[in-house]
Amino acid sequence: MIKHLAADLHTHTDISRHGYSTVYENITAAKDAGLLAVGISNHCPAHPDGAPEGHFRNLRVIPEWVDGIRVYRGAELNFTSFEGGIDLSSDTIENRLDYTIASFHEDVIAPGSMEDHTRAYLCAAKNPMVDIIGHSGTACYEYDYERVIPEFGKNGKLVEINEGTFRVRKSSAENCRIIARLCMKYSVPVIVSSDAHFCRSVGVFDEALSMLNSLDFPKELVVNADKEQLKSWFLRKRRG
Q: Model confidence over 95-119: pLDDT tens digits?
């Protein structure tokens, strides 16, 4: 059974109007929640409430360690096309960030057909600029899970199990369960995230962990289950 996690890599700050806490408040909340690490991953420029590219290029001014918490510099990329287009330059991603999440958002691209969504995710699987597939259980962006999940695994992508889905996208919860089962079937690693838009949601994973535990999901497939697995993933990613 998975009871605790080491890190929360999907958190937002008040650089977005729909985020309500500062970077430091998120770090403090991570410490209060007993986490060892936190990631700052705001929406990218194509989102109407996203941060400019300069925000991501300047994340390096945040120390790697703050009050005993390891701080990772990330971004939540937006899919901008069904060909897998994303909205940060490769220079920023490769040279200024520790990791990226890629997600569909209705404010950026309206839902298409299942084949459209499947094509976008297959492109993302092959894109070296994408590390984590964000909240892909979202009901309006349903894709061919059986076809795509193995490709995420083959290409070293993490599949996010998003706590926010269980709270604000409840119609998508069953899709997340299907995705988790397929990740078990094909031994595809996942990462559990809060998708916090307020600091007191940082490190809150109750619904996501409950779902995984109900499936007897193996701890070794949860990259942020402990600090050694998380560290190993970052080392492999950098060498990759």
A: 999 999 999 999 999 999 999 999 9
